[in-house]
Amino acid sequence: MEQERTSWQAETSRTNHILGFLVRRMERIMASVDDILVLVSAERGQIDSLVALTGSIKARLDEALAGALSPAVQAKVDEIFKDVTDNSSAIVKAINANTDTPPAPAPAPAPESGQAPVADTTQT
């Protein structure tokens, strides 16, 4: 009877240890996901601001200089803003193409002596 109780207590302790490990692991994963979401949202805001700024500057210059520039100078201004727009597009494409995936979680710590290893099921 006493041996069964000791065995049950040992198994309960091991189960609690595993559950604690899993909870800590899940908390780290969720914190990483939250951090990534904040960064992506900030990047999107910066990209949108850059695109809006470029369009606003172009519209203001077009309005202020309407008819005041020679065709040759107007062509140069148009070329400048085409390049700025192209650069903005290139920035967006580079960010989208080179966004790293988050690193894989660290391997599970080695089990304490006398315990079987726990399978890592956090990766998908």
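Next protein, fold it too.
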Amino acid sequence: MKGVKAEMSAFFLIGVAFATILVVSILKSSIRPRNFPPGPVGLPLVGHIPFIDVKNVGRSCKKLGKKYGDIFSIFLGSKCVVVLNSWPLIKEAFSMKEFSGRPGMFSGTFFQKGKTGVSTTEGDPWEAQRNFLHSHLLNLVKGKGSQGFHDIIMDEVSDLKMELSKKVGEPIAPSYIMNIGIINILWTVACGRRLHVQQQEFQSVYECIEKITRFMSAAAIMSFMPFLSRLLPESITKMEKGRYFRDRFVAISEKWIEEHKSDYRGNRTGDLTDAYLAKIKESAPHFTEKGLGAMLRESFVIGAESQSVMLRWAVRILSVHEIEQGKVQAEIDHVIGQERDVSWEDAQNLPYTRAAMAEIQRFADIAPTAVAHKTMFDVEFHGYHLPKGTAVVANLTSCHRDPKYWEHPETFDPEHFLDASGSFVEEKEGFMPYGWGKRRCPGEDLAEIEFFLIVTNLLKAFVFRAPQGDKKNLGTYYKSGTGILRNPKPFYVVLDNRD
């Protein structure tokens, strides 16, 4: 009898201990710092993650904003993250140096083997790297050598049109063909040369970009629940596979750097790698070969993926909205004619076309919450106290779908970017496809020109249409490992020659 009582007592104590741990865990998942933005109670260990619609994170945050206001907080795992849910707040906060930090994100630091490059760094090292990259790219697209950059893009556009012309009249998935041109443009900018798609080096880089992007997407949750990397099996985390492709891409980028350091330059003149190596030779603070390698890999993984997703959305949206596509083509025909390609200089004379390009970016909304920022110091912001190190996320969807700024927020309508006289609105409120403020995308100017030239010249040559039986769905495709950006559902498109 005594043994039974002792056993029951032991079970009781274990139960009490378990209950205590559970209560403490719940409290930790719901107790916020003093005078912190309000928000929902989180679950132990996972926080509010189970209640977020991964297919549309921006709308989940918008829904929470209706209850808690335009500044609220949610627990992602055990980390409490502040969400900014309106255009004025995002614009104000991200213009401040106090919000220019970057929280330690597992997927980013794993990919870069630490905090290096531009996307994962902060403070003086980040500022030096970011200013260099932005200045170099800005000079490339708008400086004395801008015509050369224009020619680089148009060479890829010519090859792209040639490949697509072989597929006229049949349903195709355009992703791979377009990705070839995107990667070669980046390759020329970074290393001063392009490769043929059949070359082994090209195939290796393409595979690394694809596999690393998939891994970063699947591993994103580990930034908030790091214990998963130790608890879950390799079959789920894919850590070894991710490490293999990361190390492989590191080796490739190191090879590029060694090639540039050698006496032989071939046809490489004034590319990003040469410019960065010049800073190293000057002993400029924060410039190292490790930092160069990180910047090169970021340019390919982040730059190629974002442009690829945006172009897929462009083809899908235009193939579904045939009337708007026809208006763009009519304007191009009227202004450009049949004798030449569309150039970047033509953009000022193509207001409807520019409006359609901007509306594709708004409607696609490929980065609903962008990349998280971090407070560099204690901050008093709109009546709340945000301690140093607080992760801050901008809900860009709340801007791109706000009826205050868009007459038909849920509809694709280029008229959103035209004023009463039919002119293109340059600085449209509520529109921030490249983020805002001090951490705004440094490659914005390059991406804008590339996107415009590729889409307009394809529209000049082809009509995009949905295949017969296509339901013309514009929904989001989500599956763990498909990327950290908002992708369109897989689709086919039929191209017809316009001439």
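About the second fold: The mean pLDDT is 88.
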